[in-house]
Write a structure and sequence with these properties.
Blueprint (H helix, E strand, L loop, with lengths): L4 E7 L20 E5 L5 E4 L5 H15 L9 E5 L5 H4 L14 E6 L9 H9 L15 E6 L5 E4 L2 E8 L5 E8 L2 E6 L7 H11 L4 E5 L4 H5 L10 H10 L4 E5 L7 H14 L3 E3 L5 E5 L2 E5 L7 E14 L5 E13 L1 E6 L8 E6 L11 E15 L2 E8 L11
Parallel strand pairs: 3-4, 4-5, 5-6, 10-11, 11-12, 12-13
Antiparallel strand pairs: 1-2, 1-14, 2-3, 7-8, 8-9, 9-10, 14-15, 16-17, 18-21, 19-20, 20-21
Helix pairs in contact: 6-7
Bound molecules: zinc ion (ZN) (2 copies).
One zinc ion binds next to helix 2.
């Protein structure tokens, strides 16, 4: 039995998934979090498009190890904040729902638009004709539904769950999960300005190790063009984190029109005010242990990693806010693509290989060899040569050995 708890972010984008390249670094899937409590109980928070990858991950894990309790079924408590598409649209693509050995316990509120069994109706409607080719009768995992409301509390083995209403069109719930290893508050899709709910959220978040908070807009947008849209900003998150004595603030539900650079800007502004701020990133995980909260970021999705060796000057900021500059050896580099001048005229969508020699070095490890696909070719672009754009693709072969 593990002693630590682990929180994994499978989807962090608000409103609709994004596939634009400039959104990749933080990720484009809509909200889905996985929390594994110290006693092994698994929670899934929201079922946005990120839940598809979680489903694949869980299946792979169970096929390999079983669940450690003597059978191979997946068991999870699914806490849904509300019924907007971005929080439920992954349901039909979560494979474990279609397998009879698995068990899911769903929690959400009774919507005044749907009445009794709201969550069950929402789940079945996701698979209704003509919206989805597979009927709900194929969803063979065992399912139970519990309707909860703001202010409710209950325990799932060693984890205590508390809820609060948020200010959002057609309502939304925030969840707090208290475990022996620490506490996490998930408060997305909310706009400040309703005193009773503002107060309720501060109470819910009091002393939490981690507060995950809606930071979709800039403070300026929130005060003007996006007022009344049901979302919030990093600045409001900072205020709540301070007032509620939260240890770590995670900016969440990034706007689909926010590039990674925009989110970088929100994060650095928030860190000036509240150093314990993070920006939610797809694949990021937080470990809760006696030593506090450990954060692990995913490997880059931005380009193909290549091993090599050359020197560089690195400038940055340390953990404790000090500026540093030093010489370092680059051992691994992410590369996206290249623009080449060629005599030859390669065919669009054909594959080619680019090998770059490090100047004056005889060392094989400084050779950078990459496979690429041709995405652009402009005849006679420069000095009668063809301008050729390529995007680097995954290596089929194992990477070149390091020294
Ligand atoms: Zn949302
Ligand atoms: Zn919403």
């Amino acid at each position: 039995m593990q002693k630590n708890a682990k929180l994994v972010f499978w989807g962090v984008r608000g409103s609709t998934p994004t596939i634009e390249r400039d959104s990749w670094r933080y990720g484009g899937n809509t909200p889905c979090l996985e929390l594994t409590a110290p006693d092994g109980v698994r929670f899934i928070l929201d079922c946005g498009t990120g839940v598809r990858m979680l489903g694949n991950h869980l299946r792979a894990m169970h096929n390999r190890w079983g669940d450690g309790h003597g059978d191979s079924g997946i068991d999870a408590h699914v806490l849904v904040t509300h019924y907007h598409w971005d929080h439920i649209q992954g349901i039909p693509f979560f494979q474990p729902f279609f397998e009879p050995q698995n068990r899911f316990h769903f929690y959400s509120f009774q919507s005044k638009y749907l009445g009794r069994n709201s969550l069950r109706q929402v789940l079945e409607a996701q698979l209704a004709s003509p919206y989805f080719p597979v009927d709900v009768s194929n969803m063979r995992a065992s399912r139970s539904f519990r309707e909860v409301a703001g202010g409710d509390q209950w325990s799932v083995e060693g984890t205590h769950v508390t809820t609060a209403w948020l200010n959002h069109p057609q309502d939304c719930l925030a969840y707090r999960l208290d475990m022996p290893a620490g506490s996490v508050v998930y408060a997305t899709d909310t706009e400040p300005g309703v005193p009773e709910k503002d107060h309720g959220l501060r109470e819910l978040a009091h002393g939490a190790d981690v507060l995950i908070y809606d930071a979709q807009y800039s403070p300026e947008q929130l005060a003007s063009t996006r007022k009344g849209w049901g979302h919030s900003s990093w600045l409001e998150g900072v205020k709540i984190a301070r007032e509620s004595k939260v240890r770590n603030l995670v900016l969440f539900h990034h706007d689909p029109d926010s590039s990674s650079r925009v989110i970088d800007g929100f994060l650095s502004a928030a860190r000036q005010e509240f150093p314990g701020t993070w920006a939610a990133m797809e694949g990021m995980s937080m470990t809760f242990s006696e030593r506090g909260i450990g954060v692990t970021l995913p490997k880059s999705r931005l380009g193909q990693r290549r091993r090599l060796r050359f020197s560089a000057t690195v400038k940055g900021e340390t953990d404790d806010g000090r500026v540093f500059e030093e010489r370092a050896t680059v051992r691994d580099l992410s590369v996206q693509g290249a623009y080449l001048c060629l005599e030859s005229r390669p065919r669009l969508q054909s594959e080619l290989t680019v090998s770059i020699d490090a100047a004056g070095e005889d060392d094989r490890s400084s050779l950078l060899a990459m496979r690429a696909t041709v995405v652009h070719c402009e005849p006679g672009r420069e000095h009668a040569q063809n301008g050729v754009g390529v995007v680097f693709v995954e290596d089929a072969e194992p990477e070149m050995p390091r020294d």
